[in-house]
Design brief:
Order of helices and strands: EEEEEEEEE
Number of helices: 0
Mean pLDDT: 91
Low-confidence stretches: none
Shape: globular
Helix content: under 10%
Distance between the termini: 25 Å
Largest sheet: 5 strands, antiparallel
Number of strands: 9
Structural class: mainly beta
Length: 115
């Protein structure tokens, strides 16, 4: 059977089990996206998996343009090094790359989502 293009791939549909706020980062396993609008629990909604976003970063260090970023599900910020728990569960799915530098004192960094 030939492969068929289903959509351009900017958004991915899913049904959350809890309400999702507009602007929330959603991790579906290792797929990370941003909810452009609020999604009610049990309702089909979409997350953006492509595009430029501004995401929280820890103030513990700066970020250079082009740096790979992972989303720390527990801390709610990006990190520069991925990590897993003692069972091998990925706690930091890949988010994308910084498109511009962010100073140590900055609370956010602009990134290009890459899935």
């Amino acid at each position: 059977m030939p492969v068929m293009v289903d959509s351009e791939g900017k958004y991915v549909s899913f049904t959350p089990t809890v309400p999702v706020a507009a602007g929330a980062i959603v991790a579906l396993g290792e797929l990370v996206g941003i909810a452009p609008v609020a999604i009610a629990s049990g309702s089909i909604g979409q997350i953006a998996v492509r595009g430029i976003v501004r995401v929280p970063k820890p103030v513990s260090g700066g970020v250079a343009a082009g740096t790979k970023l992972w989303w720390d599900i527990l801390a709610g910020t990006v990190v520069l090094v991925p990590f897993t728990d003692e069972f091998g569960l990925v706690l930091t799915p890949y988010l994308g790359k910084a498109i511009e530098g962010a100073a140590k004192s900055a609370t956010t960094v602009r990134a290009r989502l890459s899935q």
